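Lecture 7, part 2: worked example. A protein chain together with nicotinamide-adenine-dinucleotide.
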Amino acid sequence: MKISILGTGYVGLSTGVCMAEIGHYVTCIDINQQKINQLRQGFSPIYEPNLENLLQKNTKAGRLTFTTSHQEGLDSAEIIIIAVGTPQGEDGSPDLSYIIQCAKDISPYLTDGAIVVIKSTVPVGTNENIQKIIMNRCNRESTIKMASNPEFLRQGTAINDTLHPDRIIIGANKKEVAEKVGEMYLPLNAPMIMTSIRSAEMIKYASNAFLATKLSYINEIANLCEKVGADVTDIAVGMGADKRIGESFLQAGIGYGGSCFPKDVKALELTANQHGIHFSMLKETMRINNEQQVILVTKAKKRFGHLRARKIALLGLSFKPNTDDMRDAPSIKIAKSLANEGAEVIAYDPVANSNARKILGNTINYASSVEDAAIDADAIFIVTDWDEIKHLDVNILKKMRWPIIFDGRNCLDENIINALDIVEYYPVGRPSIIHPHQQTH
Ligand SMILES: NC(=O)c1ccc[n+]([C@@H]2O[C@H](COP(=O)([O-])OP(=O)(O)OC[C@H]3O[C@@H](n4cnc5c(N)ncnc54)[C@H](O)[C@@H]3O)[C@@H](O)[C@H]2O)c1
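Predicted complex, written out as structure tokens:
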């Protein structure tokens, strides 16, 4: 099948590479010339495990090409996938300007049989509006074929998720359109759910808001665990063993971030509001998350009294491991909050240092290794559970002024903590470990 994809970000590029991998002929279009140049040379502009291998392999096989030209990129495309960003606008609602621009860009080149598929996360009704824009510009009598096909990949495992999805949602108002989009995914052998366009658009928001709410729920349980002397990791195991609940998204910590959950929860709450439904549960999801993001700062202030001139090593900056994405990462709020308290912050991330610098600038300092960050630190904050951060080395801890760890991901194993002789260990929703034989400072 001949597929064109607009947008070579986390979703567009992963989709493009994977569609080529399963045998389709894919052209990726982006307005960013620099990205296209880089991609043509076989380099990925984003960090995503296994992406660059498949990019090079499929480009070499002649199944994957990149262009900034819509005329060239849309030539004889059977399916045109729109995967551009829908970031949160100033009023909290998704900014649809990139999608609208795509509709305008593709209109002159649409052939009769082509299907326009919106993969970006968009509020209910957006597909219909985009269809109208295209129809007006094409001056067509016949309806433009549209489908909604929301994406559920997770950054950090995007390639695996795209090749092995739990389900594929296809929303179309005509059976033959849904079937044609389904045909594209047949080699994946994944369950497909066909529905209306509006329902498909809604499934994406309902899913993300539910997952975010599950996280806020366990985080509030974690806060309660600290008060009553229970351990949230045991609670999560006990709850997750119940099939009705499931074990995923029950990891307590410093809350959710990233380019999707924060904006999607807000967008759903706004949609509900516009229709007279006060979805107060989502307001609470957001409130709990906002407070949770700075919980390590609160704990450190309690421990030290104040944070002025304290040197804090932030380990991990990206919103989750295995990505360089800093959009809405909890580390941003933590770093700013520590700086406001007068602390000296030195941060390290295996891949996100340079993206972090674009957001945080000189508010903090950047280290080139865990060890660099830890030297003379008063405390370590574990912010992102990258493998190299989870497996901290005892020799590194010895370089701190005094080994105190605030673990925002509950990722250090208790046996390791004891073996490493960490003086004080403060997780989230679990009992702290304070070695009695050591003098504190
Ligand atoms: N990132 C995720 O994990 C994820 C997961 C599921 C769904 N989504 C949704 O998918 C969409 C894309 O997200 P993303 O993270 O891939 O975005 P991104 O910001 O990483 O990438 C967007 C790309 O679109 C390009 N672009 C902008 N305007 C364009 C145009 N007119 N024509 C061609 N290209 C254009 C940009 O240059 C950029 O490369 C969003 O709606 C997001 O909510 C994201």
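Residues 19 and 185 are 8 Å apart (CA to CA). The two ends are 66 Å apart (CA to CA). Keep this in mind for problem set question 3.
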